Amino acid sequence: MSPAREHAVELLRQMVLVRRFEEKCAELYGLGKIRGFLHLYVGEEAVAAGVLAALGPDDNVLATYREHGQALLRGVPPGAVMAEMFGRANGCSRGRGGSMHLFDVERRFHGGHAIVGGGLPVAVGLALADTHLGRAGVTACFFGDGATAEGEFHESLNLAALWRLPVLFVCENNLYAMGTALERHQAVPDLAAKPPTYGIPTERVDGMDVLAVEDAARRAVERMRATPGPAFLEVRTYRFRAHSMYDAELYRDKAEVKRWAEERDPIRLLDDDLRRRGWLDADARAALERGVEQLVRDAVAEAEAGPLEPVEDLERDVLA
Amino acid sequence: MTRLTYREAVRGALRQILASDPRAFLLGEDVGKYGGAYAVSKGLLAELGPAKVRDTPLCESTFVGAGIGAAIGGARPIVEVMTVNFSLLALDQIVNNAATLRHMSGGQVAVPLVVRMATGAGRQLAAQHSHSLENWYAHVPGVKVVAPATPQDARDLLLAAYADPNPVFVFEHVLSYPLEGEVDETSGAAPLGRAIVRRAGTQLTIVAWGGSLPKALAAAEALAAEGVDAAVIDLRTLRPLDLEAIGASVRATRRLLVVDEGWKTGSLAGEIVAQVVETVFFDLDAPPARVCSREVPIPYAAHLEAAALPSVERIVAAGRGVVRG
Amino acid sequence: MPSLGADMEAGTLVAWRKRPGERVTRGEIVAELDTDKGVIEVESFHDGVIETLLVAEGERVPVGTPLARIQAPGAPPPPGAPPPPGAAAPSVAGAPSVAGAPSPAAAPSAAAAPSAAAAPRSSPAARRLARELGVDLGAVRGTGPGGVITHDDVAAVRRDGAPGATPPAPARVPPAAPPPGASPTPGERMRRAIAAAMERSSREVPHYHVSLTIDARAATELVARENESRPIERRLVVGALLLRAVAAALRRFPEMNARWEDGRVVPAAEVHLGVAIALRDGGLLVPAIEHADRLGLDATMEALADLTRRARSGELRSGDLSRGTLTVTSLGERGVDAVAGLVYPPQVALVGFGRVAPRPWVDEAGGLCVRPVLTITLAADHRASDGHRGGLFLTEIARGLKQPETIR
Asked: Rounded to two decimals, what is the model's pTM?
């Protein structure tokens, strides 16, 4: 199998893993096993898969509250992610974070952040530390289109550009800030037009094409490693499911959702591509699916079996 | 020992940290070329270079957040927020990130961050530049808050804040910067979470911190002239509170007066009183009292501002009231 | 937690002798307490079945705290309570009662609250100190803002009878609690308890002392004569006869067999003689011989021997220490001639005996002779009695000792 083919199949496997994992999450939410807010990434998998494929182990990743995909594809074990959503002590945040706050510092996965825009300054700081300490890493910071209306978006772009910090700003533009359409929250809906005003190299990419996302991310990261300073990707994507579990989706047409899901599903697009190229036959595809399902089953079992943090430990990890 | 101003003592500690720890740097608005709004970091840019002293744009939320991120990333930033008034723009980063990340990540994320800021009123700067909101920060688990009152403490508590592995907020009162005192420049970090008795006394415990300490000490002298023997405790650390020290003094004097430049409603003074009442109620001989700022945005006109803030006269009167009725 | 003495404020429940569901009879030992004065057994004052133990072993609780609930025979169990295992079928109706709670009739009131009605305002610190020292806040003049009684106002009463304060009324509960943080040894705690009681006595009780020296030949001869025919274990000591004399005399002097309470003399219904017993390793206990006026000489001797043995082996019972209505102390064995003591509040009198020693004596005919001579001293609360009555009381004791057959 050629490296390109192998890699493409792996990206498919990653997206399928995120998809199946989250479908299971939705089911478990209905059963009451998972509580709190649960924001699903279904439809947007190609963004995380493509961008993270361009990063190395010394790079930092910081994401939003819709971060199951980033966590899983950064290598946080599915069992630890599921256990976190179950609120168990073997969760990747010891049950203190839940779905919105997955952390794995060892893998430089610096969390799901649930204040829109609040993660950007922290990402700038992570890059500042790397710069100050003479390390080569870059920091990928995911955020949605909604964040571009926040002051911290502009402050962070400005500071990163001013200090030439290696931050890869990844705007997951799924066209809605929760329920407010892009055109209803931006005077200039062309988000890729904004970063250049801070002097930041910017690229717009089809977020349903995982290979295109990866290519764009690689170009940005290579540029950042060569010339200090941030880069910006506007990744056009779409969320197929509700904003969170309790959302009647009054703000968009069902037909619109249907059209995206039927015509632009990143998994189906890659499936079709691989089939056309003859890179993945039906048996191998079925085997891939079975492998992912096994991973998800194991993750649920690990979460189910996980211990609850003793209440006596409630106040641990507040201060060092 | 060297005679230094509070400002010079802070600068000395900053210089010591920045020069000795390669991970350390100072960032904030006008900390470099300008020399600091209160001239605290004056000369440090020239001395230590731009990697160590970083002027930021005016973006409190983002440069505080960047400090948090840098601390997470292994650097040791010291962030100067020009004043507590502007820190409100960074409250999201402070409350939602600095204070929570360690816990929310199940103990994985460390945020060894120091944030210094000027606080307080008394210079006729009107409502938007005269806040004393230390209590807002002291309310939040996951951070520590200190308020040095003397030049020596300005040095020792900053060293302590820097040595601490947690986010520590250092409040420097605007009126403290020109204070002079003997400073041991070889001293190490003072312990965090420990109050200190600045004046012994038998009849009344006055608790104060930061910019209120000189007023409390002057009031204690005035009370002594009236025959009221007041102890003065300098709280030094506002979170965690040194209830043990306060309790020990109150058990001896049986009377408590707290001076707090914040507004009385929801004040740290209220918290101190509550904790004293909870723990040493049966040692009290009189209802505890508070001297706080009047419930008004701090006005510009000198006489109005003075009337709004705790004064030596108000502290004396309150102390007299607690002891004599 | 029974009040085992006016100077007891709290006790530690060392062990339960009974478990829930077990039957207890009146007078039966149900628990052991560690008090400032040592381990003491608690008896039940009621028949019934232990329903619930309310205080755990090792727990230290203030006087007045219910220790256990006893289901009276025949009373239905409270709703929700499991039937006591092994309990006999109830046959007689009765109300539930609580073991160890001081019985109002039997023990002086141990209520800690100062007289509530006209109580002046006082600070929390003053209230705690008053409770510790047994000072009635109603009798303290406050010097704080608005006349509030402060800690120092109460402390002044304790220290020197308080310039600026009216004389304090008798205390209800003297101190026994160690200062916070300290963990005194049993010996230290006993010392503190004695100190507190005697400090209070010295502070509050205006004493007078009267003495009488008598020819004790009749008494010693009676004891010697009796002992000639007795086996060793039944022999009498003079002390028993002295107790008899006091008990007998008390019938005629109810104001001596009394307590001072709320500004008046309250005569006790019974005569329970407190006997001061020195412990070998220091300290002092004053257990009481109950109904001493109704006991003959032999029974008094038995009671005295029993108390002494139990006091020295730490087996005193709850009732033993709390019931004295007058205290007798005898230091004759230590060779002293006379004992002018301090009364043990709220008692109002204490009778002290010196040694019985041969001395020159002038007999009825005016001739000089040698006789066994004894000095009896009465220490009494001048608020409750005067020297005149005190003298008569002493004379009555002396009369009994001179005619011992009349009191045996």
From this structure: 0.67
